[in-house]
Specification:
Order of helices and strands: HHHHHH
Number of strands: 0
Strand content: under 5%
Shape: flat
Oligomer: single chain
Largest sheet: none
Radius of gyration: 21 Å
Number of helices: 6
């Protein structure tokens, strides 16, 4: 597609999406970005209420966080939703740091260069599972229910 065709396609797609969301879900949207924003906002709202507001998850998160702190991990938040994403966030931050040092968004490493990071990531994951086994048993079904409700209300 050339630029003119692409712009015409996007305009038609946005109009189609707006009509479909109005007819099927009775929601007013202008384009796909509106849908993404609404999806994100609903996910955040339900996560705050059903995950971070769940007294049992908050209690389990405190125990989980204390265990990880005892193993030497820096824990910046004990909110259940933050704690559940801690490992992935830490690994992505490491990738970003290495990439920045290399002047790229995604680093290129040889197997020998990558091995120490892999060892660290495996240890982190095992510690996360050991410390969080009770937490994840409660968190996972609640997170799945939140994700399913968001998708049912605002399908992407």
């Amino acid at each position: 597609m050339n630029e003119t065709q692409f712009n015409a396609y996007k305009k038609a797609e946005d109009a189609c999406m707006a009509k479909a969301f109005k007819v099927v879900l009775n929601k007013d949207v202008k384009n796909r970005m509106d849908v993404f924003k609404m999806h994100f906002d609903l996910n955040k709202q339900l996560t705050t209420r059903r995950i971070d507001g769940d007294a049992e998850l908050v209690r389990l998160a405190a125990t989980f966080g204390d265990c990880l702190k005892g193993k030497g991990y820096a824990i910046t938040s004990l909110k259940p939703s933050d704690l559940a994403g801690r490992g992935e966030k830490a690994m992505l931050a490491q990738v970003g740091k290495i990439g920045k040092e290399q002047g790229t968004s995604w680093p290129e490493l040889t197997a020998a260069q990558a091995r120490p990071y892999l060892v660290k990531e495996i240890k982190d994951a095992l510690d996360d599972l050991e410390c969080g086994k009770e937490f994840y048993a409660r968190y996972s079904p609640v997170k799945t229910a939140v994700d399913q409700e968001v998708e049912a209300q605002l399908p992407l």
